[in-house]
Amino acid sequence: MAVWAIGDIQGCFDSLKALLEKVAFDPQKDRLWLVGDLVNRGQGSLETLEYLYGIKESVDIVLGNHDITLIAAYYGIKKSNPTIDPILDSPEAKKLIEWLQEQKFLHVDYKLGYCMAHAGISPEFDLGMAIRYAGYLETRLQSADAPIWLEKMFKKGVSRFDRKADIIDIDRYLMSSFTRMRFCFNDHRLDFDQKGSPSEELKAKGMSPWFLTSYRKEIDLKIIFGHWAALGYYQDEHVLALDTGCIWGGKLTAARLDMPEPMIVQVECPKASKTSGLSLSDN
After folding, report:
1. In a domain, 98, yes or no
2. Mean pLDDT of all residues in 79-99
3. Which CATH number goes with the domain that contains 256?
4. Which is higher by pLDDT, 281 or 205?
């Protein structure tokens, strides 16, 4: 059995199919990890969800900011856009959205030595905390009052973890850290404005990639994440970044995880037009 992790698809169904063919993925015996942002911007968002739903027993998914926005659009919280309209207009919309709501914010596999979250794991959290908080978000997203709660998640909240904060602000921090985080300040605040690659200029402003902060709590598992097209493919002993900008004309990347070192396979992606709607973050 092969285990493949794939970066942000964002509705690029043709690229996904090409990549799966290139790695000879067989849903009858192999497993697929998806780092989130399955939909939006690409012209095949509906086809992507339909395909993944069809092989759902062979797939582990963590939710990205664009997936959360799709769920919010289904409930009328956010505006739709031309790339997700086909999902919302589909007779299968209810089934697909409810299935998305059942997905995780954090996936952990101790045997393989990896865990996965769309944007990563806040430097403030050890693995136990991350598991607990991800589970909490999953419970809220799957609850009967999920639409009411989700609407509050799109309002500006705190950028620093504070157990004494209002519960909604804590929830916003949790949601943002799992789905939107890139840079952190030296004073432990998260930054949600910078989308470029790490630079000396940002470092001089006291900003570091979340996984390189000096105060990050130690996590023994290697963290797989996406969400950061400008960072591109990146790997060190602690993290594996797989968003390689498929939607922007970059590549779609897969990493085989059931090996001593991940094997990287990529396909080139045609550039898509920027037709996305509002999201928890623009990228």
Report:
1. yes
2. 97
3. 3.60.21.10
4. 205
